[in-house]
Amino acid sequence: MPWLAILIIVVIFLLLLLASAIKILPEYQRIVVFRLGRLLGIKGPGLVFIIPIIDQVVKMDLRERVRDVPKQRVVTKDNVTIDV
Q1: pTM to 2 decimals?
Q2: SS (H, E, C) 17-69
Q3: Which of 3, 7, 30, 48 has the least C-beta neighbours within 10 A?
């Protein structure tokens, strides 16, 4: 009976390891993959496989961000005031 419990624990551990090795990226995201601290490359979009303990990933969002910037009044070189 103890071997069954050990087998279940090992299977659960392997499933968790496999689940952490698969990354699914939408079209607007990429990941930068570092293997042991060294740049491996940029991957994505879609299904990406990594080595869970050895690889580190950083997600990058490629969507444009829009910000409202208030108008500013500036003076040009010839002393004309304009709104930017």
Answers
A1: 0.67
A2: HHHHHEEEECCCEEEEEEECCEEEEEECCEEEECCCCCEEEEEEECCCCCCCC
A3: 3
